Amino acid sequence: MTLVIATATQTEMKAVLLGFNRRGRIGCKLPGMGGCCETPVNNHHCLLAITGVGPVNAALSIGRILGECKGISGVLNLGVAGSFDLEQAPLGSIVAADLEVWPEYGLRTADGVDPEGIKFPVWEYSGVDGRYSVWDRIELDSEKGFRMLNLSPPKDLLTGTSMTVSGVTGTEERARILMERYKPLTENMEGFSLALACLQAGIPFLELRTVSNLVGSRKPEHWKLDDALQALGRHARELFV
């Protein structure tokens, strides 16, 4: 069985690989955007995938991988994210998503986006207790994900709602509106697409990101990307002990 390790960018994947072995060396050439390669990581057979940034790129990349590759055991999404609240999720901290929200799906009204306003769900599926519809959110069970993928939770792991957007929130006002409506902890650009693909395929999905910035702020003191990348590598190593 093969575990997909997906990052949006080469920069994030390089940080992950440096965390694995402190040299960044793997059993394949690091793929470019939209590409993937096979390599062992400890006792796991892995497929490293660079999805590209944004929900469209993520959906296209993971859809192609799941369509072409047999024996995929699950998807581990690693990367950086913004924090809506630096007291709850400080710069450099690591957060596992327990809910993915896509705030841009549905009917846009004067009161915000109504996910059921267009009457067509993103996805419908059958579960043990009946039939379910996916509108603008997907619940995730990180504890189950760690167990099913045979991974170890990193030290000091936080959990919370992750929000997937097509455009990074660039103003305090927009951040406030999203906070009031959805109560997210972090903001990303790929998670919902990857979570939906795994839900459709019936395989585990686990999303962990380190905090690189404060959502809505462009102040230099609220952006620590290099520190978040170093933390990403450090915590990636903890996953595979």
Report on this model:
It is a single chain. The protein is of the alpha/beta class and 241 residues long. It contains six helices and 13 strands. It has helices spanning 10-21, 55-68, 142-149, 172-182, 191-201, 225-239, and strands spanning 2-7, 36-41, 44-50, 72-83, 94-101, 107-109, 112-114, 123-127, 130-134, 137-139, 158-164, 186-188, 205-214. It is globular, with a radius of gyration of 17 Å. The two termini are 18 Å apart.
Describe the structure in brief.
By secondary structure, the protein is α/β, with parallel strands linked by helices. It has helices spanning 10-21, 55-68, 142-149, 172-182, 191-201, 225-239; strands spanning 2-7, 36-41, 44-50, 72-83, 94-101, 107-109, 112-114, 123-127, 130-134, 137-139, 158-164, 186-188, 205-214.
**β content, as a range?**
25-35%
Mean pLDDT across the residues is: 94
How do the helices and strands follow one another from N- to C-terminus?
A: EHEEHEEEEEEEHEHEHEH
Q: What is the helix tally?
A: 6
- Ranges where pLDDT stays below 50 over 5 or more residues in a row are none
Q: Please bin the fraction of helical residues.
A: 25-40%
Question: Which sheet architecture does the biggest sheet show?
Answer: 5 strands, mixed, barrel
Give the spatial strand order of the biggest sheet.
Answer: 4-12-11-5-13
Distance between the termini: 18 Å
Rg over alpha carbons: 17 Å
Query: What assembly state would you assign to the polypeptide chains in this entry?
Result: single chain
Structural class: alpha/beta
Number of strands: 13
* Cα shape: globular
